[in-house]
Amino acid sequence: QSVLTQPPSASGTPGQRVTISCSGRNSNIGSHSVRWYQQFPGTAPKLFIYRDSQRPSGVPDRFSGSKSGTSASLAISGLQSEDEADYYCAAWDDSLNGLLFGGGTKLTVL
Amino acid sequence: EVQLVESGGGLVQPGGSLRLSCVASGFTFSTYWVHWVRQAPGKGLVWVSRISSDGSNTKYADSVKGRFTISRDNAKNTLYLQMHSLRADDTAVYYCARPLPETKNNLDVWGQGTTVIVSS
User: Least crowded by CB within 10 Å, which of A42, A74, B15, B39?
Assistant: First the structure.
């Protein structure tokens, strides 16, 4: 069981706004920045958010990240069918002295 | 083109060993920290190990500490993961990954992965 807790699933209809949460501890999210990754089945993950809220070039501004205390969120506005994928949060953890990934959230576009 | 290409995966018996390689191209490999991340079938991403740009600093997940060794040859633009005492729960796709420039853990470039199956 991952120390970064994500809901196993989320869903929304096209055009809707969806939020995926990531709950951690002082040793990880509370002390370090959060990343978010998108992954399609059978492919490598893609970095979508880093430093809590920064988007790498090429990531649509429909995607936004935020953090408060020991929790973080990924928000997707104007949901599109191509957003249907698995999303993972990640943060460095001082207790484990390693990079920690959340369990992942499968986003379904209804 | 910035690229990472893993190789070395395969079928190995429990208790066996395997060495994975990851060849980098399109960027100055020697200036980046690099990571190994794995994903068991149908499961989530799990960080395995990280090595500094000059190879002097390494870190491991508790699940592989003492069994896996990360190393690199900057002259060959290659990252390695030597795996010993393999167990069934090491079965996974293993990805090497490079962070954004001037960062250590924002994994931006990923290889396609190499599959390790530990089974008798």
Answer: A42
Q: Does A96 contact B100 at a Cβ distance shorter than 8 Å? A: no
Please tell me which of the candidates A45, A97, A104 has its beta carbon nearest to residue B110: A45
Distance CA A92, CA A25 (A): 11
Closest partner residue to A98 among B59, B95, B108, by Cβ?
B59
Distance in Å, alpha carbon of B2 to nearest chain A alpha carbon: 14
Inspect the interface and report whether the beta carbons of A44 and B108 lie closer than 8 Å. no
pLDDT values of chain B reduced to their tens digit, one per residue, 120 residues: 999 999 999 999 999 999 999 999 999 999 999 999 999 999 999 999 999 999 999 999 999 999 999 999 999 999 999 999 999 999 999 999 999 999 999 999 999 999 999 999
CB B103 within 8 A of CB A35: no
